[in-house]
From TrEMBL:
Keywords: Membrane, Transferase, Transmembrane, Transmembrane helix. This is Glycosyl transferase family 2. It comes from Gloeothece citriformis (strain PCC 7424) (Cyanothece sp. (strain PCC 7424)). Gene3D superfamilies: Spore Coat Polysaccharide Biosynthesis Protein SpsA, Chain A. Residues 8-165 form the Glycosyltransferase 2-like domain.
């Protein structure tokens, strides 16, 4: 028996959750059972009452707001416990068109992929400001480089995940799970693909993008941290190359002047520039060393993830499987 669970993280979504749930399918060709799960991320409104009235099958409750990344992961865990073979994640504001869920899970049913990301027609979304569009593109580009995948719309929250892939996901970032999960898929060899999906009309402002400056700041920090975590050697090599190169050139200049290769120069003490060059070279080297250490540490993380996968699997050896 194949079970699909559709999960929705909710933070104060009483106004739109009812509509969103009314559009969700209860039957989909290719799966035997469709269940719904919401994660109440510390809502202080009637989100849970709405969910119960709409006959949601599972509710995960957070006492306080913990943010989307935590809510998403708690949902995944609950879905796995409930015996889901496929998990679909969507938003509570009816942002994504639920009629596209069959399309979203098709690559998993066909065995072609383990994670499917729904790609929105970003250019056509009217309420996205140019800055938000640009950041979405920048984020997607960085994710494509770091993950070596071809996902066009990385921050999309409309996704289908197979049980196998769900067991292997980890999210360290507090703010968003979207970028990290794609990079992990790329690095762990989890097959990931993307299908175009439709979006619905705008119902409410984003809960995640409170203001553009904080959104920019968070996006940049997120991207830097992801690079540091998942491509540490590359990250620190590039970072260290900057002071090293400047220091090296400065050193070269000093040697040329010292040896008088370009003819005699006026008698000026050039010790300050030599000291400065040495400092820069040392900083560059240090950063490279950090890269090596971080790279060794990431080997550890991979080992720990293997252990975690085994523990998760044995914990979940429930009657469902
Ligand atoms: N959400 C959440 N906890 C939060 C913020 C958001 O569970 O702290 C939920 C929210 O209810 C929605 C989903 O995460 O269902 C995505 O949020 P939103 O639609 O505001 O983000 P966007 O689509 O703008 O990225
Ligand atoms: Mg949304």
């Amino acid at each position: 028996m194949k079970k699909l669970i559709i999960q929705i993280p909710c933070y104060n979504e009483e106004a739109t959750l009812g509509l969103t749930l009314s559009k969700l399918p209860r039957q989909i060709p290719g799966v035997d059972k469709v269940e719904w799960l919401i994660i109440n991320d510390g809502s202080i409104d009637k989100t849970v009452e709405v969910a119960k009235a709409c006959k949601v099958d599972h509710i995960v409750n957070f006492e306080h707001n913990q943010g989307l990344a935590k809510a998403f992961m708690a949902g995944i865990e609950a879905c796995l416990k409930a015996g889901a073979d496929i998990i679909v994640n969507t938003d509570a504001d009816n942002q994504y068109n639920a009629a596209d869920i069959p399309k979203l899970i098709q690559p998993i049913l066909d065995g072609d992929a383990e994670i499917v990301v729904g790609a929105r027609p970003i250019e056509e979304i009217e309420h996205f400001s140019p800055v938000k569009k640009m950041l979405q593109k920048l984020g997607s580009w960085v994710v494509r480089i770091a993950s070596k995948t071809k996902i066009p719309d990385a921050p999309s929250g409309f996704r289908a995940i197979s049980r196998n892939a769900a067991l292997r996901l980890n999210v360290f970032n507090e703010y968003t799970y979207t970028l990290e999960t794609i990079i992990q898929a790329g690095q762990k060899g989890i097959r990931i693909t993307s299908v175009p999906i439709r979006t619905n009309n705008y119902l409410r402002p984003s809960r995640l993008v409170k203001s553009i400056p904080t959104y920019i700041q968070r996006s940049i920090l997120t991207i830097i941290r992801i690079f540091m975590t998942y491509q540490p050697l590359q990250f620190f090599t590039i970072l260290g190359s900057v002071p090293f190169t400047v220091g090296f050139l400065l050193c070269l200049r000093w040697i040329i002047l010292y040896l008088g290769i370009l003819g005699d120069s006026p008698d000026k003490p050039r010790t300050p520039s030599l000291i400065f060059a040495a400092i820069l070279i040392i900083i560059g080297f240090q950063l490279w060393m950090f890269g090596l250490i971080a790279d060794l540490m990431s080997v550890n993380r991979k080992l720990l993830e293997d252990i975690q996968l085994r523990i998760r699997k044995s914990d979940l050896n429930s009657p469902h499987k």
